[in-house]
Amino acid sequence: MTGMNLKNGLIVAALGLGMFSCGNSEPQDVNVVDTTSQEDMLTEDMFESPDVDYHLPSPLQVASIFKKSGLAYHSNITNPTANSSKYTEELKQMLNFGVYSADMAYCVLNEQSNEGRKYLAVISDLAEQIGMESVFENKDLMDRFDKNIENKDSIEILMIDIHERTETYMEENDMQHKSSIHFAGAWTEGMYLGVYDYEKIKQKKDWVLKSLSRCLF
User: Fold this and answer.
1) What sign has the CA pseudo-torsion 50, 56, 61, 65?
2) Are 133 and 127 in contact (CB under 8 A)?
3) Residues near 105 by Cβ (< 8 Å), separated by ≥ 6?
4) Does residue 174 form part of some domain?
5) What is the pLDDT of residue 60?
6) Residue ranges making up the domain that contains 115
7) CB of 127 within 8 A of CB of 97?
8) C-alpha span between 133 and 125 (Å, rounded)
9) Given its phi and psi angles, is residue 90 left (phi above 0), alpha (psi -120 to 50 degrees) or beta?
10) Of residues 5 and 50, which shows the higher confidence score?
11) Does the pTM of the predicted model rise above 0.85?
12) Contact 185, 99 (CB under 8 A)
């Protein structure tokens, strides 16, 4: 499977997972007579659940899981920042806001802060294009990044701040349903980076086994 086909398949899966998590997952019993008036049912907000509150993982959390599992850093496999100019449709801009967020987390967790800074700049530009410029408008995030570029822990805290600001903005502007699109982009990129590393490890193991067999036999 090519990298593009893999990413397309992962995006579909991630969108389905995100939409499911944002919806009401309570099962409906078709044998129970519902006495709720039709008017009340029509006015019910289907994106809210009084009993369950779902929280999708941030790009940093997704990247951290892979890092703890032994994911190695590979240069030049993240989505090039130059591609950002190609995303002119809103859906692609929102998806790649998540993709670049995952790439930034991948770089930061692997102590590639200079690369991470490039992704922060792209994320800021995409946020402006999709109407979330207020998340980055005061430029303090970039200043904090520059001041702490050698401090991985501080950069990780900054990434948590970016995620919280984004979530708060969406809640205040009734855009919660769009968070699943960002999640789909971040999750897809995380899975792609994980699969790439797995394939590399598999190739190394195969090479080692072949080398050993040649030495032994």
Assistant:
1) positive
2) yes
3) 59, 60, 62, 63, 64, 159
4) yes
5) 82
6) 3-25+35-216
7) yes
8) 8
9) alpha
10) 5
11) no
12) yes
Length of the chain: 217
Q: What residue type is assigned to position 46 of the chain?
A: M
| pLDDT band, very low/low/confident/very high, at 126 (cuts 50, 70, 90) | very high
Instruction: Using the structure block, give the residue that is written with the tokens 């967790």.
Output: 109
Side chain identity at 32, as an amino acid letter? Answer: V
**What amino acid is encoded at 88 in this protein?**
T
Half-sphere exposure for 138 (CA within 13 Å, toward CB): 6
Structure tokens at 103: 């790439």
Q: Roughly how many angstroms between the first and final C-alpha of the chain, as a whole number?
A: 34
Arithmetic mean of pLDDT, 19-42: 45
Domain count, the chain: 1
In a domain, 75, yes or no: yes
For residue 168, count CB atoms less than 10 angstroms from its CB and return exposed for 0-12, middle for 13-18, buried for 19 or more.
exposed
- 9-23, 100-114, 126-140: which has the highest mean pLDDT? 100-114
Instruction: List own/partner pairs for 124-127 with CB under 8 A and 24 or more apart.
Output: 125/84, 126/84, 126/87, 126/93, 126/96, 126/97, 126/100, 127/97, 127/166
Q: Are 103 and 66 in contact (CB under 8 A)?
A: no
Residue reference for tokens 């970016």 = 162
Give a yes or no: residue 30 inside a domain.
no
Tokens of 117: 């800074």
- Single out the residue of 163, 159, 183, 195 nearest to residue 66, CA to CA: 195
Residue corresponding to tokens 């099962």:
27
